[in-house]
Design brief:
Blueprint: E1 10-12, E2 15-19, H1 22-28, E3 37-42, H2 47-50, E4 58-62, E5 65-66, H3 70-82, E6 87-93, E7 99-105
Antiparallel strand pairs: 1-2, 2-3, 3-4, 4-5, 4-6, 6-7
Amino acid sequence: SEAAKPEMTTKALGLTLSPLNDEARKTFKLRDGLKGVLVTGVEANSPAYDKGLRPGDVIEEVNQQAVEKPADVATQITALKKQGKKSALLLVGNGAGDVRFVALALN
């Protein structure tokens, strides 16, 4: 398994995203079955922050497309912008086992 290197993080929509690895699972108490991309940072006053996204949340899907690595999220967002979409619908899970949809404005 790959170690998380700084260059593996991606920034999108005010979020800092990292691969979901064993170390991250332990840190944020995430269950093994949870798949997706880990939120490791959220810019204050960003739309993501206002919608309640926090470090330790896991983005499982972007517009109903499963995401496995930070680049997948960036690719989906770029595609949505090209299509002229105004927002991205994220499926977000967390260590408490909550799963919710969050719509974020694309700016």
